[in-house]
Amino acid sequence: MEGRERRADGKQEGGRAGGLFAGKSLVRRIEWLNQTRSNRASDSMLSSTARLSISPLAKRVLSVPLATQASENIDAADGGLTRKKDNGDGIQPFEKIPHTGNNGWINLLRFWKEDRFKDLHKHMETTFSTLGPIYRENLGSQSTVNILLPADIGELFRSEGLHPRRMTLQPWATHRETRKHSKGVFLKNGTEWRADRLLLNREVMMSSAVRRFLPLLDDVARDFCLMLRRRVETEGNRGDGCHRLTLDPSPDLFRFALEASCHVLYGERIGLFSSSPSQESERFIWAVERMLATTPPLLYLPSRLLLRLRAPLWTQHATAWDHIFSHAEARIQTGYQRLRAQQSGAVDTAVGGPAGRFAGVLGQLMERGQLSLELIKANITELMAGGVDTTAVPLQFALFELARNPEVQERVRAQVQLSWKQASGDAQRVLQGAPLLKGTVKETLRLYPVGITVQRYPVRDIVLQNYHIPAGTLVQACLYPLGRSRDVFLEPERFQPTRWEPSKTGFPRDTEDQGASFRSLAFGFGARQCVGRRIAENEMQLLLMHVLLNFRLSITSSEDLKTKYTLILQPESPPSITFTTL
């Protein structure tokens, strides 16, 4: 599969913006809201609305028939939710979009006071349930329009232009500017972004690149399972000819993700599966986690003001980034010296690797010489920082869901075992013959998206849910409520990897052509999708493949995991899983 994402055309999207609710928007929005409410348990609804601090007036409004609500101008003056009056079937102005309160600073204070940032994904889900499939939100200096239906998302992406823009993570950009670091493609826009991105795509996104780095990822996944099997056989209980051990796999998964990233990016192993992994690598993992945790609250405050004030939160954030850059620069310098030695004839193999073997993305970029060393450093650092938690955490969720769904686990394992036998253990052929592995990853990311939004600034005026959206407005597709919406997925609470098979059994029939290409967006979309997508997809599939070939997974409690948001979605407490040898 090529790195360039296939765009959907008008036929696939089923017509004008607004998708499921275009045209007679008032009636359709009322039907959608009634259906959404009936799909959720009343207890859950009451607890969710309580968290939103809805005023007594707004609470009474929720019990009024929706047809009555839609004909009134309802405003919770204390900062609660607001639904504006509909003036008929014509396109409504931007100001009429339902919103959570116009004063962004009051909203931000409420978020801080109620510690709501960690539950931002739940806040979005509850707000959609209350206001419908589109709403405005102001937080501090940020103003967004939030959407969740695939047809609306498709309309947004069709207006992204040649140089798609998403929200700039200003704390990251300020760090680069104050430290005099170059910016990678994640923080760039315009023609400069496009030029660098096309060069990177060749090394990390295209099919030829996947064929080069897949063996390196497979080596790490095999070694991870060998390490884990030794541990289970040494520390676990023996019975029925098997060994079993219950453990929290998250620390080992973080080491796996870092080891795999280093192997692909630098062409070298760093020995994280040894009995005593290096403190340097452990500090790097800590720095990435700290950087992610301090980013969300900094998004809504002026970064340079916090810098001048030497605010503790900013200091922690910048210190974490400094350590990430220091770690990456040391690896890059080593790779650069190896390449120079190889070019001078001091060594016989490229960048110190075995003859004919892919020596890492860094080596490829240096050999081509199309990016400056500073730009290579910036982009490799971004790939490193974005390649640890964003892989390790989804693997925690995937192992948990496979463990609490034994029928699904056995079905995926049977397909993997058959493909393994037919492919004689060739990793690429095994993955091709076991599409349920990819379905498992997609299903995991549907329920637990790493990033909970995908943003774009449309380059032209568009219409969403019969509301006018001016060009240049920040619009967010909200992935957590999207993945759990009954209007988009049949039985969304079920972990069902087969829903992604060509038969499309996991989607409502009347929505099969309504933005079908925009149901799975965990890696973004189009030219601006995640640049490390192919690395992450294959890394997760290979790890799951080797785990299922070696272990049966089980858990003691099948209760849902509680989650929190720290720029990425992750468990509040990592799940413990029992690994039983096969």
UniProtKB/TrEMBL annotation:
EC number: 1.14.15.4
Residue span of region Disordered: 77-96
Entry's Gene Ontology molecular function annotations: heme binding; iron ion binding; steroid 11-beta-monooxygenase activity
Cofactors: heme
Database matches in Pfam families: p450
Residues the entry annotates as binding heme: 530
Origin superkingdom: Eukaryota
UniProtKB keywords: Heme, Iron, Membrane, Metal-binding, Mitochondrion, Monooxygenase, Oxidoreductase, Steroidogenesis, Transit peptide
One GO location term (cellular component): mitochondrial inner membrane
Keyword S-adenosyl-L-methionine recorded: no
Subcellular localization: Mitochondrion membrane
Stated family: Belongs to the cytochrome P450 family.
Protein name, as recorded: steroid 11beta-monooxygenase
Species this chain originates from: Denticeps clupeoides (denticle herring)
